[in-house]
Amino acid sequence: TMKNPVPQAASLLLEKLMLLVHIRPLPAGSGAETPPPAPGYYDTSCFKRGDLLEVPRTLFIHFGIYLGENRVAHLMPDILPSITADHRQIQQVVTNKRLILGVIARTASVRVDTVEDFAYGGSILVNHMDRLFEDQVLSSEEAARRAEKLVGATAYSLLWNNCEHFVTYCRYGAPVSFQTDKFCETVKMIIRDQRSVLASVLVGLASIICLGVAPSTTLPTIFIPFFLWMAG
Length: 232
Hints:
CATH topology of the largest domain: endopeptidase fold (from Nostoc punctiforme)
Number of strands: 6
Shape: globular
CATH class of the largest domain: Alpha Beta
Keywords: Acyltransferase, Cytoplasm, Endoplasmic reticulum, Endosome, Lipid metabolism, Membrane, Sensory transduction, Signal, Transferase, Transmembrane, Transmembrane helix, Vision
CATH architecture of the largest domain: Alpha-Beta Complex
EC number: 2.3.1.135
Membrane topology: Single-pass membrane protein
Domain LRAT: 52-179
Transmembrane segments: 197-230
């Protein structure tokens, strides 16, 4: 017999909600942010200007464009650019609180950080997505220039404008997100099997947290309506 995919999909959805917004795990028993590695932790001699850098996490990947001289441009949810113009405050390493508020407010910034701050202790893959785009790869200088032109405040959307959309536009000329595609497929799987009330609630929470969409109050399919268009 075929196993019910809903519990697995619901679990994956919850994990995606926490990880796709780049929340950094805190050490056990600590209330402080985990500090990034010290400068020089990564060997940047193998990086070239315009390279697409990937930092795999447990269930998601964070992306950036290398600009040279230990600098990486990357898109991150952040509330500060919408409430202050103080560049010194904005340039400080983004905390979890800033990330969460940025996701809720759907605001972000394309910022330039050191490789250490960008990767935050994770391993780095270089141009790993090139194999998916083949002849669409732009010149390294064009990719870097595109990234530099986009530095600054921007809107944030899990579905339409996240860190993966940013780098694929810069390096391949087309903003796409394979992580978002997988996320939507998970949501579709949950919606198609409406036997699980828990799954319906999780979908509603996803719409509120990630997309800022108000839930429906119609029972018993509470939280469902916004995602019905994705069921196809």
